[in-house]
């Protein structure tokens, strides 16, 4: 498995929703606020903000951070399996580290 594989945000949103992780708000600068409950007032759930490393895509480390912050780490294997499986049906880029910048 490539180390820096990234996943389309629309796929991430769909998979997260199946596991009880909701988009609470999307900001114009690209950040997304995720929550472990749907947005209702007053909001009593946990939330976590995340930004893109590559536009409209999350890497596996961002995925794992969101899962950890929202107490969904127990579902990480299942979620990651579905995300990796989704890569079979899309064109995607794998960004290897640039040795000239080390």
Question: Can you give a write-up of this model?
Answer:
The chain has one domain. It is 30% helix and 19% strand. The chain has a 3-stranded antiparallel beta sheet, covered by helices on one side. The longest helix has 11 residues. It contains 3 helices and 5 strands. The protein is α+β, with helices and mostly antiparallel strands and 102 residues long. A hairpin with a 5-residue loop joins β2 and β3.
SSE topology:
Layout: E1 6-8, H1 9-18, E2 22-26, E3 32-35, E4 47-50, E5 57-59, H2 60-69, H3 76-86
Antiparallel strand pairs: 1-5, 2-3, 3-4
Helix pairs in contact: 1-3
Number of helices in the DSSP assignment: 3
Residues in helices, as a percent range: 25-40%
Mean pLDDT: 86
| Order of helical and strand elements | EHEEEEHH
Query: Uncertain segments of ≥5 residues (pLDDT<50)?
Result: none
Strand content: 15-25%
């Amino acid at each position: 498995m490539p180390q820096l594989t990234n996943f389309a945000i629309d796929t991430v949103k769909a998979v997260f929703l199946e596991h009880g992780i909701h988009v609470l708000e999307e900001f114009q600068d690209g950040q997304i606020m995720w929550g472990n409950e749907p947005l209702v007032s007053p909001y009593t759930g946990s939330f976590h903000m995340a930004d893109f490393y590559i536009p409209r895509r999350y890497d596996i480390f961002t995925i794992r951070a969101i899962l950890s912050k929202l107490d969904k780490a127990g579902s990480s294997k299942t979620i990651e399996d579905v995300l990796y499986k989704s890569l079979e049906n899309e064109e995607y880029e794998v960004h290897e580290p640039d040795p000239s910048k080390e």
